[in-house]
Fold each of these.
Amino acid sequence: MTYCVALCLEKGMVFLSDTRTNAGVDAIGTFRKMVIFEKDKNRLFTMMSSGNLAITQSVKEMLIQGQKFDGVNLWNAKSSYDAALVVGKAIREVKARDEEALNSSNIDFNCNFIFGGQIKGEKHRLFNIYSAGNFVESTPETCYFQIGEAKYGKPILDRVINYETSLELATKCALISMDSTLKSNISVGLPLDLMVYQKDAIEKHLAISIDEQNPYFSMLRNLWGQKLTEIIMSVEDPNWSEQDHQTKISTHSNRLGPIPTIEN
Amino acid sequence: MTYCVALCLEKGMVFLSDTRTNAGVDAIGTFRKMVIFEKDKNRLFTMMSSGNLAITQSVKEMLIQGQKFDGVNLWNAKSSYDAALVVGKAIREVKARDEEALNSSNIDFNCNFIFGGQIKGEKHRLFNIYSAGNFVESTPETCYFQIGEAKYGKPILDRVINYETSLELATKCALISMDSTLKSNISVGLPLDLMVYQKDAIEKHLAISIDEQNPYFSMLRNLWGQKLTEIIMSVEDPNWSEQDHQTKISTHSNRLGPIPTIEN
């Protein structure tokens, strides 16, 4: 599996991906899921992928080779929307080529891409592109996308992130979201690729790979576990005494009755 | 969907379940997923269920009716293990009755139960019982089970819980695990049923239903979101300056190279 998350915020974008692939528990490998497309101060896109690796690598290869669809590729697309269309068309070309053979082996055509960035003169934009080649764009109300093993790392994003969140806080939040996933699911693994983009820069602000030895990430994950335990301990305990039953944690104004109890 | 979690700890047990069922987004209902079986100071079991409601209700009905399998039911089973076998056999009886008809409608035979408690003279024990009627028991190393929408609420458990955790802390942690799930997945919903059991008591320590109006749960969920944001803000930001690149968040000793960048 895979976990990738990207946020498109007022001040820029954050992309974070793991690098583990697996086909069963005994076939584990490390593959980069992030790739950056950069044309000097004209456009910069970051793409992350999940799903069948043979599919996602083929799609990536077409994009890297600059293959044109109706005359358009990532380098000459007029808008980020048009660039996302290029990614979608590359997916459809791989689908046309491989789906029948995959299905005959009982394998679904399965791939997902997060694609985003900025073309000079346009705002920064983020897209979630599906196996069918169609896609949705993020908005200020729904400003992040996840692909792969998304559930473990979703609560922290839902609790902390909004469109006005700073890039620093968003980066920490993405790293914690990833760490929650790493801790609870062995199909997601280090190293991580992190890309932070400041809007209108049209160049990488930060693009680094983070492994087990990275001091900041090690500090963050240790500190986080510790702080979580601290706050949960600092929150007032439910008090089980009869009096508190009535006030703190009680059935009063409860719309269901007591828990069904069968006695013998 | 459903989310249920149970912890079997040194000092006792905590069970927590939601009450939402859904068949698609337009067929949402409230059904209790927790039931308690109690025989005065002799035995006390708590059972929670997920999966197909028609199946889980049938299984529950057989257990409530005291149906015997090879002469054994929940009221006369000699051990909690034997009681878990009774639940497994009830599942198999429903399976024998309904599976063919379900399959002919392209519906899987799908149910999961968490079942645990204590019989006088034996320690408190917790089981995760599958659709096939087989089951596993928790251990001090793996002291909790989840069924249903388990992923959202797993990271907090993995970070905080161990076998020595107090019942108060475990209860708070289960409530936060549930709240993370409620916040990120609309197929899980209030009210909640909470049962706390102190080992060797062979009676309910606390068995309450928690709805939107419950003051303690409201306080906990508001406070938690706020505290999470506070700690994440209090953690040192990654510093993007060139110098700090080399020390705090850098590629040094990284086992992968830089993120692949395609230039044009």
Amino acid sequence: MFKSEKLALHLRQLIDSGQWKAHEKLPSLREQAQISGYSLITVLNAYQTLETQGIIYAKDKSGYYVNERSASQTLLNAGVHAAEHIQINSAVFHYLKNTQAAGFIPFGSAFPNPELLFNQKFMQLLAQHAKRKQSYLNNDNMPPGNLALRQMIASRYMMQGVQCNSDDIVITSGALNALNLALEALTKPSDVILLQETVFYGAWQAAERLGLQVVTIPDHSEFGLHIEAFEKALQQYPVKVCWLMLNTQNPLGYTVSNNIKKKIAALLEQYQVYLIEDDVYLELNYGGKKPLPMTYFDQHQRVLHCSTFSKSLGMGTRVGWIHARQFSDAIQHLQLMSTLSVSPLVQNALVDFLSQHHYEKHLRHLCLRLAQYKQVIYDYLKLHLPQQCKVDIYPSGYFLWIKLPEYCDSYHIYQTLLQHKISIAPSLLFRPKHSLQNCIRLNCSYELHTDIEQALQQLCRVIADNIAEKG
Amino acid sequence: MFKSEKLALHLRQLIDSGQWKAHEKLPSLREQAQISGYSLITVLNAYQTLETQGIIYAKDKSGYYVNERSASQTLLNAGVHAAEHIQINSAVFHYLKNTQAAGFIPFGSAFPNPELLFNQKFMQLLAQHAKRKQSYLNNDNMPPGNLALRQMIASRYMMQGVQCNSDDIVITSGALNALNLALEALTKPSDVILLQETVFYGAWQAAERLGLQVVTIPDHSEFGLHIEAFEKALQQYPVKVCWLMLNTQNPLGYTVSNNIKKKIAALLEQYQVYLIEDDVYLELNYGGKKPLPMTYFDQHQRVLHCSTFSKSLGMGTRVGWIHARQFSDAIQHLQLMSTLSVSPLVQNALVDFLSQHHYEKHLRHLCLRLAQYKQVIYDYLKLHLPQQCKVDIYPSGYFLWIKLPEYCDSYHIYQTLLQHKISIAPSLLFRPKHSLQNCIRLNCSYELHTDIEQALQQLCRVIADNIAEKG
């Protein structure tokens, strides 16, 4: 970040936070230079940046004044947050510990039902490679990872019309590792990144770990991503990297249209911003047709697309990747400093599994079941939830998003259900700032057996109690 | 770090770097407060710290002056280095890429000969677990990792007389991941850590990644670790964490005596410093008796001991651990934000392998071969290397450390040998500061077959040429 950008951002924060009111006079250039320790030129540049953005206005000879909050500013009510102050980690830690506890009904789990991911053929291939000395001695598991596997991943991109070759791909220890490596390669501490307002908590955790600042944009009730807010944010903040989820967004579930994706790509280029695309549910579209990754629309190598096999073949797989292109070397550097290599056994088994065309069959079967189980649970909830509740359903993934009346407290519901050995994901996990209290993400990758039905019954009862209590 | 420690460190750097000479007068307290922006009290505390350390002295009413460099300061000639300026990454990256290239004689490799690590029984167990649905669905691979495996690791500590239970252990994706997690959990950017002068490059890389400052202590020609320098460093610098390798030190090979380990433990407590112990070659002692980890001598929970199965069962294993004790939660937090889980398959197979007592047999066999191969190569080198060269050999591990005359350039030798498809590890990799030009780390885990003998012959020839050229 340039010095003047840094100063503009700092002043912007004072205005956003209400410390400086509309029509209040800003310190003169000379005063500001003294206060901030920056040069006059830097201060002038910062003031002019804010003026261009419509945040302040100049009066002849009299100086600069704070503008009225415009509609666009209200749109970005979120402002910039230092990720270090979010402290969601202990809440998330507590939550993750509970969802993995034995004997719990895992409605709160982030992972699909492992029974559905289990594939006999894949296990056989793993076992074959485990016994094959050669696949064990092979050194090809070092970064960027197994060449044959990278070729297969590249050809899957090509089938979607995305330019890609094996050198563009870096294999990682799952998607979370992929996303963290991409973010670390693209940022320095105190850089500004942009997130959707309601997101996978891992994005905030990564930002916190790397000492970044975060701008968020609100969700759009119809289109998912709020493209106007996105543009305003790029205009008004020195955003370096966006981390977005555009397909089967976690936790909300929507998939952004190609039209909006095109607009995003154009804005990335216009504002010279990079995009890390979190696309872990890539293969979980019920219609069988994968949504297009942002790399399809990106003519200027501004997108790093991250995905994984863990969401379709089991989290024990721990094999993800980054379509990293010009950043491949930088990311391999980081890998050589941290996780080193990815299991050669699993990489080799994946190569066979993909090349023998077992993967498509597995995915068809998996998506059929996910669609069916989710619909059954959705129907159950429509019938048994209090009428004040709304449930969002989309034709992909395995989550439902339950919206309770605004006065409800889903964290309280979460705590009550823990006593019944049922986990859910309360909405505050997905919004550390501007807390969202009244929603629940529900993992629906389970068949409506007796125990699941009893747990749903319990869930509906606890929700009804919460409504009755608070309403 | 306290403000006064920060200031003292900054002034210390000015003195270390020679910007302030002996008997030069320091700015007055008031002047220093103005220059530095710190309060008078902070400046006074900083000056008093430096006075206690003998770096500066006070003259009545006249102020503070820089002292002559004492013997202890000369001992710590290294000073403090911001890890960000080291830039060894591209050298290391280049080196690692070459050592993994197909068809190269891997004298430069950090990993033992995979043929020696291959164990039929372990492969069978892996294959069995790969086919077992239950071991795939098991959720026990999430942090802190498989309970049974943690119990086995704990009992191995207990057998050495180290207090340990399964809750103290966190399973990681190999040792490099373990060491990085431990360092990240214990430090904040700009903290000072202490390293040995000649070390595994991964320590510097980790420090660079986390924005730390590094103090180094010189090696001791007889005892390996220079305990006087160690104490002086803790006395004179605000060291927060030490990262040391005391058993089969990489690259030098020595193992520190129990007597010195006791002294280290006492100093850690006295100066309230934590130690991350890198002990990856733990099991590779030829006598069969493992050296004691620092946790054995540590009465005050100041040691985090890191090790791995990758150096004895193959790097594809990717299973390491931290004896993390009170830091277990903090480290699991970091894992949940980054690598998440470790392969459940490998963890399960390790449990069986250990509980069925295959591991000890494997290690006995492995160490016998390592001892034998290293001795044969050592004897070859003694016979064929120019007489100006010295070779260090110790009864553990699989490296030899070759010392060429000081005017030799092992990086040049490295580059020449690459053209012959032979890799070596030149000494500059292990000393980014105060560069060490004239040594070579040689991986000796290979039997003296024709191709290895030819490569050794070539190595001796290129070394002789270098000596002739430069001498």
